[in-house]
Amino acid sequence: MKSDLFPTLPDISFAERDPAIIERELIRGYEDAYRLQYGQERKLFPGDPIRLFLNTIAFKLIQQRQLINNAGKMNLLAYARDEYLDHLGALLGVYRLPAQSALTTLKFTLSTSQIGVSVIPAGTRATPGGGDIVFATLTTAEIPEGANEVEVPAHCLVSGVSGNGFVPGQVRKIVDPFPWQMGVENVTVSSGGADIESDENFRERIQIAPELFSVAGPRGAYEYWARSAHQSIIDVDVIGPPQIEPGHVEIYPLMRGGEIPTQDILDLVYKTCNAENVRPLTDYLSVLPPIKTTYDLNVTYWINRSRATQAVAIQTAVEKAVQDWIVWQKSKLGRDLDPSVLNHLMVAVGAKRPEIISPVFTVLEYAELSVPGEISVTFGGLEDE
Question: What is the C-alpha separation between 219 and 286, in angstroms, rounded?
Answer without folding.
Answer: 14
